[in-house]
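Re: your question about dTDP-4-dehydrorhamnose reductase

S., sorry for the slow reply, the queue was backed up all week. Below is exactly what I fed in.
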Amino acid sequence: MPGGGPGTGADGSDMDGGWLVTGAGGMLGQDLLTALAAGGEKATGLGRIDLDITDAGAVRAALAAHGPSVVVNCAAWTAVDDAEAKEDQALAVNGEGPRVLAEACRASGAVLLHISTDYVFAGDADAPYAEDAPLAPRSAYGRTKAVGESAVLTALPDTGYVVRTAWLYGAGGGNFVRTMIRLEGVKDTLDVVDDQRGQPTWSADLAELLVGLGRGALAGTAPAGVYHGTSGGETTWFGLTREIFRLLGADPGRVRPTTSEAFVRPAPRPAYSVLGHDRWRAAGLAPLRNWKDALADAFPAVLAAEQAATHRS
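Result:
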């Protein structure tokens, strides 16, 4: 493998099966497969219909069939509000699924990179959350993701990696940036929340970082544990929307600030989702760039994807 040798299976044999990506039909999964192909990596993507990560037998069979050195779990229950009423179902995917994957990886010797979220924190801090900050989820979604993190780190203390991300956007799926692009064309003004702070993160940027982390894991240069995969800097949803309007050539003054009370949702949203990135230094990797720079580079592809979707509808 470029950037590092193959992993070693539990029986001492070499594993040269490349990468296996679960949840491959999602936005991050699509971008990860693209990044892996561009990097010359052998990769297999399995979507929801291809693999139920809560099915232990199916997971073991998938790993036996593909023999991956690295598994990246992008599969998740991401319907944050629905999880409040369906926590058991969300827990199956976000908690039990990662445990099943981790145990299968432990048996096969594969490295596991598991994607998690800022929602595992309370969201009431006033400085970036460190990777080892105490977890205090306030929503069902956050609770189920915290269970998944614990399962991975417990089963794979030396080969398990948890990568928390937040405010993810890209061309390959529905997300806030695409929604604001669409609304700019149909709304005279937009009221957008200005009391939630976070780090808009381009899924393609995160995908590149995951490739680097997986290679580092195989090479033995990236310590196992928790990493934060979010862009640098911070803003609010209001600030992000104004930047989207600016990139569209629209008047940012059409975006008006409001508070979370104006958009009450079943699941509480973190008021502060800014994550710290200190641990990347230990892995010899640079954290992601500033969110504004990433958005500017991402924008042509995200805009084109939204325009194509609007045309089809």
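Confidence is low (pLDDT under 50) at residues 1-15. The chain has one domain: 7-175+200-233+273-289.

Happy to talk it through on Thursday.
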